[in-house]
Fold:
Amino acid sequence: MLGRVREELGFLRGNLLVLMASYMVFGFTSGLFGPFRSPYIRELGASPLVLGLMTSVGYVILAFIRIPGAYIADRYGRRNVIAVFTFGAALSYAFYVFAWDWRVIMAAVVVSSLSHIYQPALEAIEADSLPPGKRGVGYSLIWIMPGIPAFLGPMISGYMVERRGLVPGMRLVYVLVLVCTLIVAAIRWRFLKETVEESRSLGQDELIASFRESFGSIWEAWRGMGRDVRYVTLVYLLMSLEFPLFDTFYSLYAYDVVGVTGIEWGLIYTIGSVALILVGYPAGKIVDRIGRRRSMLLAYLFSTPFLLAFTAARGFNQMMMVNIAFVVSTAFFFPALNALRADIIPRDRRGRILGLMGTLRSLAMVPAATVFGYLYEVNRAYPYYVGVVIEVVTVAIIYALVAEPTRPEE
Structure:
């Protein structure tokens, strides 16, 4: 039995082990603030439309900062940009601790988004470190392992919010988040190893030059995309349009319409984390066994009907069932999508192409977040009706255009 486990998880070492440890700490922090972030910002004076606009601003910055980030990841290496800018992302949480108005949170969004210049390098180092035959399982572990500590977070923050009130409770939560994210930055700085063989040091002059040159490399990255990569990019963009539904408005809807309390909402998040832990690894095995394309289609069998049911959910039990269905869907979809991207993108262009995909993703979410904020103010269910339409279109594209790779990239 032990030998079988070693054989199955033998690839989990080096950089992957470091990233997994950091993801688990991030999983805990996300569980802490995730359920209550939007209600907290609204309590500081932001309307749903302002929340949508704030999210859009973050996506605009992410869209453009990923371009030089992707260029730097391929030319100068992955490790340094990840290690340095994780500290910047960590320090952005200090704004949440001391915020007296939603405009202070806007400053935090700007700092955090700029710091995420390291995202293409992070995606590339993941793909560099996963063997082709284990990518489904590997990305599943990347997806589910943070859920192990994450299930504690919502119960802690839910208790703090119920006990102290939303704003004072969330200030304490963000103090804990700040400490944990600084620990992550230190772990990455100390233990990550470079995966680009001919990486070069990046000084201030080279960084400025890279910003100029990187924008010229976008056209090269687009031309370097084959037809299959472009179809997968289209699916990625459509999926991204839905992200603000869950990132920004999901918790508001649970409070405003479904009618859950702070403790109940924390418990729903906790149960979802447990479900992800139980389903995630078997889902990854299925992704490797039946293929990436079929796994993505399977994911939408869980997601689309329950997205429609979400608009009719009332009370704790119905909200819990809907949330579990979304968790099962993501347990199949994201490992399959990430494994498919790693399978079809050449290693030497992986940073730039993943960076371009991320840039397009962020640009797609810019209008989506603002539109959903406006629709939420008109009718709280309207954004989710639009989400159902997006999912139906995505399923049709996956079925008709996305092909299973026959020879995965190393």
User: Anything to note?
Assistant: Residues 315-344 form the longest helix (30 residues). The chain has a mean pLDDT of 80. The CA atoms of residues 130 and 138 lie 7 Å apart. The two ends are 29 Å apart (CA to CA).
